[in-house]
Amino acid sequence: MNATTVVAIDGPAGSGKSSVSRAAARALGFSYQDTGAAYRALAWTALDREVDTENPAELVALLADFPYSIGIHPDDYFVRVGAVDVTEAIREPRVTAVVSAVARVPEVRSFLVELFRSVIRSTDRPGIIVEGRDITTVVAPDANARILLTATEEARMARRSAELSTESAAKTAQQLSSRDAQDSKVVDFMNAADGVVTIDSTELDFDQTVQAVVDLVRTSD
Ligand SMILES: Nc1ncnc2c1ncn2[C@@H]1O[C@H](COP(=O)(O)OP(=O)(O)OP(=O)(O)O)[C@@H](O)[C@H]1O
Ligand SMILES: Nc1ccn([C@@H]2O[C@H](COP(=O)(O)O)[C@@H](O)[C@H]2O)c(=O)n1
Questions:
Q1: pLDDT at 1
Q2: What is the mean pLDDT of the chain?
Q3: CB–CB of 220/143 below 8 Å?
Q4: What's the 148 CA to ligand 1 centre distance in angstroms?
Q5: pLDDT of residue 121
Q6: What is the rounded CA–CA span in Å between residue 14 and residue 158?
Q7: Under DSSP, is residue 86 helix (H, G, I), strand (E, B) or coil?
Q8: Domain at 5-220: CATH code
Q9: Which ligand 1 atom minimizes the distance to the CA of 151?
Q10: What are the residue boundaries of the Cytidylate kinase domain, all occurrences included (predicted)?
Q11: pLDDT of residue 19
């Protein structure tokens, strides 16, 4: 049993991992760690330093000088590489387009898994919600609560499209699907591992989904 309550949440792109985890952390008085941000920040660093993102050796070399930091208070979220605030930049399509290539390199994954565990240990709150693709299985398999947050691809695309102009909606839907296909070759986040509870938000609104997570955490302790 952890002294700090650890909640692990995995799921495909657009399933609501970041937004739901953040709101649930706020409701519970917990910290919140977005692990996709680290893969994105490394992809941003590769682009910034003009490194070939298809070359694993060049990506691994970046890890020797990767001064990454993230805000884990749900009301003070930021992502930095050194002194550069990359919170917005890591969401740009050029970063999203190459992040899966960065995330499939085994040395990158093992380096970041250790980083995620050190961030979990650093929290000064009673618990932390950690979301990503391999949190329930690799990063924190002994978490107090382990959740697979899903929704049909149709629902996820509709939610993403609602954030965008009509013009780019179709392209974004296609990118979401192709990113899931690439990421699924590296980690299985479509099927719940043993002991992992599935929350399917297809028929739930945002607040109901947050409540489902909060209820599960409260009954897991
Ligand atoms: N149950 C829900 N009902 C309606 N909208 C939702 C629900 N859950 C999440 N959303 C919305 O869906 C969109 C995608 O959510 P979010 O960015 O949190 O997904 P994600 O899983 O973190 O995606 P990615 O892995 O691509 O970063 C957001 O606009 C969010 O507000
Ligand atoms: N635990 C994780 C988290 C993320 N990834 C990779 O990072 C990409 C971006 O993640 P978002 O959650 O910000 O969309 C994602 O597409 C994966 O390639 C990962 O491998 N493991």
A1: 44
A2: 94
A3: no
A4: 14
A5: 97
A6: 9
A7: coil
A8: 3.40.50.300
A9: 1
A10: 7-218
A11: 97
* DSSP-derived secondary structure letter, 193: P
Does ligand 2 come within 6 angstroms of the Cβ of 35?
A: yes
Q: Which residue from 151, 149, 110, 106 is spatially nearest to 130, judged by alpha carbons?
A: 149
Given strand 197-200, what is the order of strands in its sheet?
31-34, 127-132, 5-10, 145-150, 197-200
The C-alpha atoms of residue 21 and residue 125 are separated, in whole angstroms, by 15
pLDDT digits (tens, 9 = 90+) for 16-60: 999 999 999 999 999 999 999 999 999 999 999 999 999 999 999
Could you list the beta-strand ranges (E) of 29-173: 31-34, 68-70, 79-81, 84-85, 127-132, 145-150
Instruction: Write the pLDDT tens digit of every residue in 94-132.
Output: 999 999 999 999 999 999 999 999 999 999 999 999 999
Q: How many residues does the chain have?
A: 221
Q: For the chain, what is the radius of gyration of the CA atoms?
A: 17
Q: Strand 145-150 relative to strand 68-70: parallel, antiparallel, unpaired?
A: unpaired
